[in-house]
Amino acid sequence: DAKNRGRNRYCFYDSKLQAKVLARSALHTGLRHALSQQQFSLHFQPQYHRDGQVLGAEVLLRWFDAELGPVSPAEFIPLAEDSGLILPIGAWVLQQSCQQLADWQHDTLKADWHLAVNLSVRQLHDPKFVELVRNTLQQTGANPANLVLELTETQLLEDIEAVIVKMQQLGELGVRFSLDDFGTGYSSLSYLKRLPLNQLKIDGSFVRDLLDDPSDEAIIRTILALGNSLELAVIAEGVETVEQYLALRNLGCQQFQGYLLGRPAPVAELSTRHQTPGL
Ligand code: C2E
Ligand code: MG
Ligand code: MG
Ligand code: MG
């Protein structure tokens, strides 16, 4: 009867919820030891100029746990943010990235390459963050101009005034900023003007449907025009096919990132690519 069905349904949801809570706590336990157990590594995904030149790469965090196997950042980053673990984890990513930049500076082919590091807004709000970036740059000797900090549009909008102050302080160190997943939030143009940005990153969702959906094409056109008028570089992420790449080029896009041009991979693979393959 209805009462029984109701109870069963309740039990069903309950056990599903329980499984979720258990999975979450297993992840959390694993995550707490991941740094000390050296389970993190970094992948690098190349970013290209339309002339075929490698500009640098985006740094993407990877976690391999002995019991859990590989865990996607889409899964563990939110958990790291909620628990505060993102602060030591983010500091490690920054340290490794700056060390990599410093290493490249001795190599004439790579001396100008940048690295784009993803930030959580929680790191930005940490009172010690500006000091951390300054010290990491100093200790490693990385050129601040080659360090790009990526912030997502939606994260930024939460506490915009505080974010602007922090970005200005970091900007004074010489680092640059890219606005990630652009187009998925609702940035007002007046805010965009006030943020010390250097680049907009077109969200991969618009690139994915670019050839089929006229409104996605319109959005990409608008972002490119916005970049032009605000004098910001624009990069497209998630470029998977030649057709998408050519369509983006036709719309005037200058910078590209995606599986077509290079998958995220260990740093050694990155250094072998100097030309846009097959284009
Ligand atoms: P994101 O910053 O927008 O990074 C782009 C994501 O798209 C990456 O997923 C990348 O592997 C994937 N991707 C690259 N090219 C393509 C493509 O052509 N097609 C498709 N379908 N996907 C592509 P990933 O590595 O799983 O990272 C997911 C998200 O996790 C990132 O999104 C970023 O927000 C976050 N994340 C990664 N590393 C870090 C980190 O060190 N710190 C913080 N705070 N967040 C990070
Ligand atoms: Mg990113
Ligand atoms: Mg992105
Ligand atoms: Mg994205």
Provide the succession of SSEs: HEEEHHEHHEHHEHEHHEHEH
Structural class: alpha/beta
- Strands of the widest sheet, in order across it, are 1-2-4-5-6-7-8-9
Please estimate the helix content.
40-55%
Task: Count all strands and give the number.
Answer: 9
Number of helices: 12
Shape call: globular
Structure, described:
GO terms for molecular function: catalytic activity. This is Periplasmic sensor diguanylate cyclase/phosphodiesterase. Keywords: Membrane, Signal, Transmembrane, Transmembrane helix. Residues 24-278 form the EAL domain. It comes from Arsukibacterium tuosuense. The protein is globular, with a radius of gyration of 21 Å. The mean pLDDT is 91. The protein has helices at 2-34, 73-83, 86-104, 121-125, 129-140, 153-156, 160-172, 189-194, 204-208, 214-230, 242-250, 267-270; strands at 40-49, 54-65, 69-71, 114-118, 147-152, 176-182, 199-202, 233-236, 255-256. It contains twelve helices and nine strands. By secondary structure, the protein is α/β, with parallel strands linked by helices. α3 packs parallel to α5 (129-140). It has an eight-stranded mixed β-barrel with strand order 1-2-4-5-6-7-8-9.
List the helices and strands and how they pair.
Layout: H1 2-34, E1 40-49, E2 54-65, E3 69-71, H2 73-83, H3 86-104, E4 114-118, H4 121-125, H5 129-140, E5 147-152, H6 153-156, H7 160-172, E6 176-182, H8 189-194, E7 199-202, H9 204-208, H10 214-230, E8 233-236, H11 242-250, E9 255-256, H12 267-270
Parallel strand pairs: 2-4, 4-5, 5-6, 6-7, 7-8, 8-9
Antiparallel strand pairs: 1-2, 1-9, 2-3
Helix pairs in contact: 1-2, 3-5
The structure holds ligand C2E and magnesium ion (3 copies).
GO molecular function: catalytic activity
Keywords: Membrane, Signal, Transmembrane, Transmembrane helix
Protein name: Periplasmic sensor diguanylate cyclase/phosphodiesterase
